[in-house]
Task: structure prediction
Amino acid sequence: MEESTRGVKFFTIVVFLCLAFADVSGSSEQPLADIAIHKATRALSEAVSIFASPQLLGLQAKGLPKIKWRLTYRENVRTTSLGWERGAAPPLPILVCLWWKVTCFTKLKAKQGLDFQSSFSMHMSLAYIKGEDTEWVNVTIFNPNATADDWVGVFSPANFNSSTCTPDDGDDTPYICTSPLKPNLVAISNFISFLNPKAPLYPRLAQGKSWNDMTVTWTSGYNIDEAVPFVEWGLQGTPQSRSPAGTLTFTRNTMCGPPARTVGWRDPGFIHTSFLKDLWPNFVYTYRMGHILSNGSYIWSNSYSFKSSPYPGQDSLQRVVVFGDMGKAERDGSNEYSNSQPGALNTTDQLIRDLGNYDIVFHIGDITYANGYISEWDQFTAQVQPIASTVPYMIASGNHERDWTNSGSFYDTTDSGGECGVLAETMFYVPAENRAKFWYSTDYGMFHFCVADSEHDWREGSEQYAFIEQCLASADRQKQPWLIFIAHRVLGYSSASGYASEGTTGEPMGRDSLQKLWQKYKVDLGFYGHKHNYERICPIYENQCVSSETSHYSGTVNGTIHVVAGNGGKKLDTYSQQIPNWSVFRDLDYGFIKLTAFNHSSLLYEYIRSRDGSTQDSFTISRDYRDVLACVHDGCEPTTLAS
Ligand SMILES: *[C@@H]1O[C@H](CO)[C@@H](O)[C@H](O)[C@H]1NC(C)=O
Ligand SMILES: *[C@@H]1O[C@H](CO)[C@@H](O)[C@H](O)[C@H]1NC(C)=O
Ligand SMILES: *[C@@H]1O[C@H](CO)[C@@H](O)[C@H](O)[C@H]1NC(C)=O
Ligand SMILES: *[C@@H]1O[C@H](CO)[C@@H](O)[C@H](O)[C@H]1NC(C)=O
Ligand SMILES: *[C@@H]1O[C@H](CO)[C@@H](O)[C@H](O)[C@H]1NC(C)=O
Ligand SMILES: *[C@@H]1O[C@H](CO)[C@@H](O)[C@H](O)[C@H]1NC(C)=O
Ligand SMILES: *[C@@H]1O[C@H](CO)[C@@H](O)[C@H](O)[C@H]1NC(C)=O
Ligand SMILES: *[C@@H]1O[C@H](CO)[C@@H](O)[C@H](O)[C@H]1NC(C)=O
Result:
């Protein structure tokens, strides 16, 4: 959804904390005094100081984690909240330039102002989130004339030199030259370096093209000419084998426009994907990522584990989580943007608490809301790492991943901030034939998923329509009774006020194009995001509820139940005042869906709130294979009906 329009704020005093990303030798550490955000150095004040320690991160931690900040205040400082507000236009600059290794934990602003004559310390952790490798950095700031407009920023790389900044040459230089902000830089800290800024990070699993392939995708600073990437893996407790990995990256010129191509550009590092093949179903596998350097030494990540996927049709407990539009946020509220995804951490945290109680996740579009600020993808992959390193994290493409004018997206908007799909298609693996055409199918035991790409044409006659039909038709319902359709935009039904104000109840040409397919193939459930609220629809066909039941469905599949689950984290969207007669349950809070298939004839649906894990809405489906075969209106071939 669109960003809300806000005024751009300007800040007059900036304190920079410098992060250098040099190795121990430190040869690339340089003074930052000429960072030249519009002659900011002129304001350097001897009365202001900032100091950070330790200066080398990673001596305690393995690998290189993301940086997290936490502000802690001495008693004489009133400030409690930190934040940043983003203006919609012009795109707000990145005050703080982050290297690909560091997530965009960039700007800290004391909203209510610091007390005069005060100082405070800031803790920065290297966080492998689940208590693995956390390292704190204490930052001490002293500013006798502190005001509410004070900022602390992180600069990475610290050796940025404005005189090498050549705006449109398309090289990989961090691009802050055109920052419209004109802050006064009052102090610069010492530099902080990482022991190994190239370490492999943020593993994310995804189903491969076959049910018994698992893919591991991760990010590192090692290109293939420097080190060979691979995954070491195997059944838990047995000798491990190795599988090679492919490596992808992209350049600024791959981006379609600003800010991805300008102030938002960051070198993404290298994204590796390894294919773990021929897995035995239902076993726990352990894995870790590695890089072999040319001199034969190894760089290792931490170790992780996952449970391999069930055989298609396998009768066992299988649990699926579905949500959309989650995004990311920082725990202390500091961020370069306004808190535009206030529910993201609650959803993430609830899913981390629930690990072990679900088997696969579908994040159905609007993944990070990086919107062209590329380092935010690192922030996001760090945030979901506990989930994505443990269960397959399957994504769909949304407007904030793909849309860009004149770039082939079905909608002619700039919602992706110039990313035009490149980030989503590179940072996460999906088992699509062509990752630029973001539609795919995947099997998980008794489930068959058809994931559509609402940012490309789905109408009858389109390439995607043919895929959707083929995908739905390929579900063997005796073995895979639970057939699920997924798309980012609401191709089904929604009473969100945004649609209502346009006089619609979903994307134009959405269900009109697809409902015949859903009916013919007796799709159980359709899931959508895009509207940031929860709404469950009755089993429906051609705008008519085909059942007045709301909690226990049984027997023939007369219509499809559609669900909007776009309340993963992004600011919530209101509903139309009038509740359409097909709307069964609406909830304006953050949450996600959990599907539990007990066996081939019993499915539990739950809508769970992120804030407390409580189930707010639920129903069950009970039925036999014969109920799927039974002919219903428009649900059988005409020839079958003829006799
Ligand atoms: C950071 O501050 C804490 C508490 O004041 C202290 O215990 C710790 O040693 C400091 N760490 C560093 C690296 O300075
Ligand atoms: C603080 O600000 C006041 C008013 O602008 C100024 O007179 C004073 O010199 C400043 N103090 C320091 C230490 O910069
Ligand atoms: C920045 O780059 C220019 C041109 O290459 C060079 O003359 C200058 O010394 C550099 N500044 C620093 C601090 O390295
Ligand atoms: C191999 O090269 C790396 C990076 O240059 C270095 O850190 C490591 O010590 C080297 N190992 C050996 C065995 O020479
Ligand atoms: C489907 O429609 C038939 C005939 O109208 C009805 O008997 C049956 O109960 C319906 N099934 C469901 C699941 O609502
Ligand atoms: C629901 O409303 C639609 C029009 O919005 C109408 O066509 C349909 O008959 C109504 N269904 C029921 C069950 O009232
Ligand atoms: C399927 O699971 C449900 C819920 O656990 C149970 O009540 C039912 O007996 C099971 N059916 C079969 C055929 O196992
Ligand atoms: C997140 O969860 C906490 C704890 O339940 C709750 O107090 C807070 O309001 C939630 N935040 C949002 C944005 O829903």
